[in-house]
Design goal:
- By secondary structure, this protein is of the alpha/beta class.
- It is built from 8 helices and 13 strands.
- The strands form 4 sheets. The protein has a 6-stranded mixed β-sheet, sandwiched between helices.
- It is extended.
């Protein structure tokens, strides 16, 4: 089922030796992202770029050659930009830690180049979001981004219409060494400077559970509503209620059947009929039905339609106290 806008996502993932402990959770998270695209948004396209690989496989290195493209060594495009399929899922599931040495800036530029070429070849194909997801611990030494280079990269991202999403794996936990902590601080400062000039966001992933949920969590407004907390009949306190979780609806499924040789749209029409619960063979006519107000699990018959439109405002009232044992938690 396709969405309204075709989305393109380029995942740039660090697989260097320092990422070995994080890769099982990252591999699962990226797999679930591609799987969700395959099942729910089959027209969306995904590409996977790995850096820190033992070998090298990217067009930027091939075009510049070994002498000029040295900085693009150990970067491999393992999944070109295309609609995810079973082969794509198998490729993602086989990602493991490797022994190569590369930096996230060069890998980022390879991802930008990949998407720019895909859009240039098919300019009308991508009408939705274009995302570049950069995932690393950022605790290895790389050449510091100077303001001019940072501005050039930000200009390329803006020109390509790319939204840069940076995920700092392990950020918030003690680094493996003092040098790694210093490298992480310097690298993240450069990336925040880049994000200040380009559309994007940064998210820290300190724990394994954060990594597994990195693509499934969705930020929502936490404010629920404002109300008055009534304590007795003479005391009211203005309070603000915050939501801890929010319901995320699943994509709607459309009924469809392949058109026959005689033609037709293929859409399925649906008819609803109501039967008497005491006599399943009796189909109720329109005059035999009555609207009801849902109260808990029951429907209370209501003759006045105006009563069904009544929606009470939010309120909070302290009714009393009881022992904890009287309120079981199921």
């Amino acid at each position: 089922m396709a969405s309204r806008g075709k989305e393109a996502a380029v995942i740039v993932l660090d697989v260097g030796p320092q990422m070995a402990n994080y890769l099982p959770a990252l591999r699962k998270s990226v797999f679930l992202l591609a799987e969700s695209k395959l099942l729910n948004h089959s027209s969306h396209e995904v590409a996977v770029v790995l850096f820190g690989t033992t070998g090298t496989s990217n067009e930027v290195y091939n075009e510049m050659g070994p002498s000029d493209g040295e900085q693009y060594r150990h970067i491999s495009v393992v999944q070109p930009l295309a609609c995810p399929d079973l082969k794509c899922l198998k490729t993602i599931n086989s990602i493991c830690s490797e022994r190569g040495s590369s930096d996230h800036v060069s890998a980022l530029l390879v991802g930008v180049d990949l998407l720019k070429k895909a859009v240039a070849a098919r300019p009308s194909a991508f009408k939705g979001n274009k995302r570049l997801l950069l995932i690393s611990s950022f605790d290895t030494e790389v050449e510091e981004l100077d303001p001019e280079t940072c501005g050039d990269i930000a200009a390329q991202l803006t020109q390509a219409g790319l939204s840069l999403e940076v995920y700092g794996v392990g950020d918030g936990l003690p680094a493996r060494s003092e040098a790694a902590a210093a490298h992480r601080t310097s690298n993240l400062a450069s990336l925040h400077e880049l994000l200040a000039h380009a559309a994007g966001s940064y998210k820290a992933l300190p724990r394994g559970v954060d990594i597994c949920a990195m693509f499934t969590l969705k930020d929502t407004a936490s404010t629920g509503y404002k109300a008055s907390l009534a304590i007795g009949s003479n005391c009211k306190i203005e309070v603000q209620v915050y939501k801890k979780t929010a319901k995320q609806p699943l994509p709607s499924l459309k009924l469809y059947t392949p058109p026959t040789a005689a033609g037709g749209s293929g859409l399925v029409t649906r008819e609803t009929e109501y039967r008497d619960p005491t006599d399943r063979d009796h189909v109720l006519a329109a005059e035999e039905k009555q609207k009801g107000y849902k109260y808990g699990q029951q429907l209370v018959p209501v003759e006045d339609d105006g009563l069904l439109q009544y929606k009470p405002g939010p309120c909070m009232e302290l009714l009393g106290f009881t022992a904890k044992d009287n309120v079981p938690r199921w």
